[in-house]
Write a structure and sequence with these properties.
There is one protein chain. With 242 residues, the chain is mainly α. The chain has one domain. The chain has 10 helices and no strands. The longest helix is centred in the C-terminal third of the chain and has 27 residues. The chain is globular and about 45 Å long.
C-alpha cells in the first residue's frame, strides 16, 4: 500500500506538469521511479501503460477547455502513430540509450530557442506548416525508442516554429493518446502484461491531475507558459544528459 501511494503521488505531479506544459509525464515518471529504486525496465513499462490512461484523460480535459486545434491533431496523429510503431520495433534491436544524448542536446537547444522567443513578438504560423507531419513522425519514433519525448519534441518544435502555445499543448496532449496506445500495444506484445498491476498508482494519480493541468494551461498567459516550457525542457534534458 505504501508503494501504491508513492506511485499515485508521482503520477499526480507528473501529470500536472504534463497537462499544463504539454510534456514531461514520461520523463518525470521514469526519473522519479528510478529514484525510488524501481528497475529501469519496470519503470519504462509502468510509465507507458499508465500513459494510456493519463493521456486519454488529459486529452479529454483539453477538449473540454477548448485548447484543441483539430486540424493540427489530424496532421500529427497518423504520423506520430507510424513513428511510434517504428520506434518500438527498432527498440527491440537497438539500445535507445545510444541515441539519448543526441536527443537531450537537441531538446536543450530547442528549450533555449523557446526561451528567446518568449521575449520576442509572437508570429502565429498556420497549421498547414509543412513540417507538422515530420515533427509527429520524429516525435513518435523518439518517444518509443528513447523512453519518452513525444511532448518535449513535438511541443517544443511546434512552439519554436511559431504556433499558438496553448493550441499546441492541448493538441499535442490529445494526439499523444493515440501515439501512446500504439507504442504501448507494441511493448505489451513484446514484454507481456506482468507490470500492468504496478502502473495502477501512476494511473490513479495522473487521471486525478489531468483536469487540473488542462485548466491551468487555459488561464496562464503565453509568456510565462513559454518560459516554463523552456525551463523544464532544459532542466530535464540536462539531467538526462549528465
Amino acid at each position: 500500500m505504501g508503494d501504491l501511494w508513492v506511485f499515485i503521488v508521482i503520477g499526480f505531479f507528473a501529470q500536472i506538469v504534463d497537462g499544463a506544459l504539454g510534456m514531461a509525464f514520461g520523463v518525470l515518471s521514469t526519473t522519479s521511479l528510478l529514484a525510488f529504486g524501481v528497475p529501469p525496465a519496470t519503470a519504462s513499462a509502468m510509465t507507458h501503460v499508465a500513459e494510456i490512461f493519463t493521456t486519454g484523460a488529459s486529452g479529454a480535459s483539453h477538449v473540454w477547455n477548448r485548447n484543441i486545434s483539430w486540424k493540427l491533431v489530424a496532421r500529427l496523429a497518423p504520423a506520430g502513430m507510424v513513428g511510434g510503431a517504428i520506434g518500438a520495433y527498432l527498440l527491440s534491436n537497438i539500445d535507445g540509450k545510444v541515441i539519448e544524448p543526441f536527443i537531450s542536446l537537441y531538446l536543450i537547444a530547442i528549450g533555449l530557442y523557446i526561451l528567446f522567443k518568449a521575449f520576442r513578438p509572437q508570429f502565429k504560423r498556420d497549421v498547414d506548416d509543412w513540417t507538422v507531419p515530420f515533427v509527429g513522425l520524429a516525435g513518435g519514433g523518439l518517444d518509443a525508442a528513447g523512453g519518452g519525448g513525444w511532448g518535449p519534441i513535438v511541443t517544443t518544435s511546434l512552439i519554436g516554429r511559431g504556433h499558438d502555445p496553448k493550441k499546441v499543448i492541448g493538441s499535442t496532449s490529445l494526439t499523444e493518446f493515440a501515439v501512446t496506445v500504439t507504442i504501448s500495444a507494441t511493448f505489451i506484445l513484446t514484454l507481456g502484461w506482468s507490470e500492468l498491476d504496478s502502473a495502477i498508482g501512476l494511473v490513479i494519480g495522473g487521471v486525478i491531475a489531468a483536469p487540473i493541468g488542462a485548466y491551468i494551461v487555459k488561464h496562464i498567459p503565453v509568456r510565462p507558459l513559454m518560459i516554463a516550457v523552456s525551463m523544464i525542457i532544459i532542466a530535464t534534458s540536462l539531467f538526462r544528459l549528465f
